[in-house]
C-alpha cells in the first residue's frame, strides 16, 4: 500500500477525508499531523484523536504541529465548521479519545517519515501549509524524497472562499503556502475542482440513518448542504479535503502543469493564487493544478463506497 501522511486541521471536510483514507486498503496512513486553521491547534489535535477513536484506528499516531502561522495572526473558520472545529452535536457524538498525541512535533515527524519511506510516501496537506513549510526549511530534500505532495488549497481559475481572492488554506498562512508551492512541486487541489463535486443529500440522509460510525459521518456531510444550496444552487454536501483524498485513492482529477505564485503582499489579495494560465511570465511550471474532473470517475461513488467499508 502507498504510505500516506495526512497533515490536517479537522474540520468537517478534513474528517471526511480522513475517514476515506482510513477505509481504503490501497493507502497506509502512517500518521496524522495537526495544524491550526479551521480551529486552534489544540482543538484540531483533539478532533483528530476523537475521529480515529470513532473508527477504532488508535494505531495511527497523531503528532501536533504549528499553533500559529508564520507571520499572520491566526484566523480560524469556526463559523463554517462549528465551535471547536466541528459541529457541536458531532463533537458530542464522537467518543472521548483514549490515545494521547505523540510527544514530539509534526515537523520532525514529516522529515523522519520522508527519510524513512523514501520514494514511497505521499503527503496530503489538508490545512494551512505551515507544518510543511517548516519541514522544508529544516530539510529541503523532503521535496525529492517524497513521492507526491498534494495541497488542498488555492483558487486558480475561480474566486476565493474566505476573501474574494483567496482560498482559506492559502489565506491563513500565505507565506507558508508560497514556500511550499515554490519549493515542493506540489499537486494543487483547489476550489476549482473541490467546489464542483458533492455527495447528494439523498445519500447523506441514507448514511445518517445507518448505525455508527456512518450516522455521525452522515451528520458531518450534512453540515454543508444549506451552504451548497445557497452559494452554488446545487444539491449535496461539500467536502473539499475529501476531493483530494478521493483522487489519491481512486483517481478523480485531471491535472495540468502550471506556474503558480501565492500573493504574500498582505493587501486585499493576500493568499490569492496567481495562476499564469497563458505563460505570460515564460517560467517553467512549478506545480500541477487540478483543473478538471475525470469523466469516468464518480466522486460520490468513491467517497460513499469507502465510507461504507467503515461500517
Ligand atoms: C479548505 O479550508 C478549510 O476550511 C477546509 O477544511 C479546507 O481544507 C477549503 O478551502
Ligand atoms: Ca482542512
Biggest sheet strand order reads 3-2-1-4-5-6-10-7
Radius of gyration: 18 Å
Counted by DSSP, the helix tally is 15
The level of helicity is: 40-55%
Q: Would you tell me the overall average pLDDT?
A: 97
What overall form do the CA principal axes indicate? Answer: globular
Into which percentage range does the β-strand content fall? 15-25%
What order do the helices and strands follow?
EHEHEHHHEHHEHHEHHHHHEEEEH
Q: Based on DSSP secondary structure assignment, what is the total number of beta strands?
A: 10
Bound heterogens, unique: beta-D-ribofuranose, calcium ion
Major sheet: size, sense and barrel closure?
8 strands, mixed
Assembly annotation: single chain
Low-confidence stretches: none
**End-to-end gap:** 21 Å
Structural category is alpha/beta
Describe the model.
By secondary structure, the protein is an alpha/beta fold. It has helices spanning 12-23, 41-54, 78-81, 88-93, 106-116, 130-138, 142-145, 168-172, 174-183, 191-194, 201-208, 214-222, 225-232, 240-250, 299-308; strands at 2-8, 27-34, 62-64, 121-125, 148-152, 187-189, 253-258, 260-262, 273-275, 287-293. The strands form two sheets. The chain has an eight-stranded mixed β-sheet with strand order 3-2-1-4-5-6-10-7, sandwiched between helices. A two-stranded antiparallel ribbon has the order 8-9. Strand 2, helix 2 (41-54) and strand 3 form a beta-alpha-beta unit. Helix 1 (12-23) crosses helix 15, helix 5 crosses helix 6 (130-138) and helix 11 packs antiparallel against helix 12 (214-222). The radius of gyration is 18 Å and the shape is globular. The two termini are 21 Å apart. The model has no long low-confidence stretch (mean pLDDT 97). The chain binds beta-D-ribofuranose and calcium ion.
